[in-house]
Amino acid sequence: MRDPREASLIAVERRRARAAVKREIQSGVRNPLSVAREAWSDADSPAAGLRITEFLGSIAGIGVVKIRRILDDLEISPRKRLGALGARQTESLSSWLLDRQTHDSRANMRGRLVVVAGPTAVGKGTVVARIRERHPDVKFSVSATTRDPRPGEVEGEHYLFVTDEEFERLVETKQMLEWAVVHGQHRYGTPRGPIVAALESGSSIILEIDIQGARQVKMAMPEAILVFLLPPSWNELVRRLQTRGTEGPEEQARRLDTARVEYDAQSEFDVTVINDDVDVAAEAVVHLMSGN
Ligand code: 5GP
């Protein structure tokens, strides 16, 4: 029989070794697939002793909710240790890790697609204008719309102003990454070509679109970062909508209805940024583009 003191020292040492492996995964020193392979080839290794939940949780970008979903998909019990998976589980986890690794390295080579959305009148336009001013090098998508230009709006800079027929043709020829009828009135859409070109050349690009569009972009390009701009409060949002003076009372009421539904969509987004101070909000968005 082993001396209990000796056994507890061994247990402490093992825990420490497991913690070191987790840190190595977290900091990117070791890639998760190589840790998993070590666990499967050596049942006494610290890697083998990691709980599957601890292992997945050490990988950047994977939190509690994702862990649950991944384990459900791969049919692995959250109580399992990495070194004690069945053959089928080993196989499915290893192909999942491989897919993720390939996807990550592709995403690193490409620029980032940052989608800024949020309820109507939250000040998306102001934040975007501030980014343009302070970061002239940042690329923006220019949407197509069927609405008329407002005073001061420039064709090709603020929007591509198109007729219904032109818009229809862009949709039919699959030139739109996403499109939506906004405020139940006009159609707005993101031309796909400039987005693909920017990302492939390694540049990041910002899309300022509505929430329906943001959802479509996430489906088409899951690597997109969805940013939800929040007003400091709901009352402030109503005040901003009523005082900006670009819409008549009927249009204001319609936009407020849309904003109420949109406000509830924030949980679908990757990041929320409160637009209390425009400079701070603008910098927060730019920071996301650099991936830090
Ligand atoms: P506005 O008419 O005030 O310029 O824009 C109205 C709304 O249309 C804003 O919420 C804006 O985010 C949204 N929007 C602008 N461009 C696009 C786009 O390309 N796609 C989608 N889905 N929404 C857009």
Automatic annotation (TrEMBL):
| Top EC class, one word | transferase
* A single Gene Ontology CC term: cytosol
- Which Gene3D superfamilies does the record match to this protein? 1.10.8.50, Guanylate Kinase phosphate binding domain (3.30.63.10), P-loop containing nucleotide triphosphate hydrolases (3.40.50.300)
Record EC number: 2.7.4.8
> Is Transferase tagged as a keyword?
yes
Gene Ontology MF terms: ATP binding; GMP kinase activity; nucleic acid binding
The answer on whether this UniProt entry bears the keyword RNA-binding reads no
Q: Which UniProt keywords apply?
A: ATP-binding, Kinase, Nucleotide-binding, Transferase
Q: Domain Guanylate kinase-like, which positions?
A: 111-290
Q: Which InterPro entries match?
A: GK/Ca_channel_bsu (IPR008145), Guanylate_kin-like_dom (IPR008144), Guanylate_kinase (IPR017665), Guanylate_kinase_CS (IPR020590), IHF-like_H2TH (IPR055201), P-loop_NTPase (IPR027417), Ribosomal_uS13-like_H2TH (IPR010979)
- Supply the Pfam families for this chain: Guanylate_kin (PF00625), H2TH_5 (PF22525)
> What family does the Swiss-Prot or TrEMBL record give for this protein?
Belongs to the guanylate kinase family.
Instruction: State the protein's name.
Output: guanylate kinase
Its source organism is freshwater metagenome
